[in-house]
Amino acid sequence: MIGGDVSVDAVRELLADAHGGVVPIVAAGHPVLRSRATPYVGQLDAETFGELIEVMRATMHDAPGVGLAAPQIGIPLRIAVIEDRCDVGADVARVRERTRLPFRVLVNPRYTPVGSRTAGFYEGCLSVPGYQAVVTRAAEVRLQCADETGRAVDEVVRGWPARIVAHETDHLNGTLYIDTAHTRSLTTSGMYGEMWSDPTPERAARALGFATDDRR
After folding, report:
1. Hey, which of 110, 124, 162, 168 would disulfide with 67, CB 3.0 to 4.6 Å?
2. Residues 156, 114: contact at Cβ < 8 Å?
């Protein structure tokens, strides 16, 4: 893994080692996940940048996940990819405000809450495999970034897509979801599937002793 300063040669080496277009995901405990990523200002040539995006997309799909930040593959640049095919039941999608999110590239993203409405739901992370926990986040956020072409993006994102944007942007600031999760909600993925995969975490909150409307 790269970490620290961004080396173009190191990025190319990582990409060259991809198997089937997929590279390993960095697990919690690696310093690259706890450092503020470097703004992307064209450090990579167009070919390398394009290949990086494709590898990130393939790695996200292979995991599988709905987002991946560059530090999660050891590259400390402020770049993330997101995509949600929304493969959940209609009731879950409605309650969680989860809608299909086309593939997008976020370069140097930042977000700010819009309004006071919040929502608490279970989240997982590809860098913290095997666990899930409830995180209360703003239900709407203002996303400001650039896309892969350099076009400026300034829009309001709602529901589950807002959660994905916030989760991946947090990665670029050295923050993992477990830092702001309700710790009493922490569960293994197996136990989540067995006991707590309701559309909302309210039953889990009563049983485990946490309040989903508290923001940390």
Report:
1. 168
2. yes
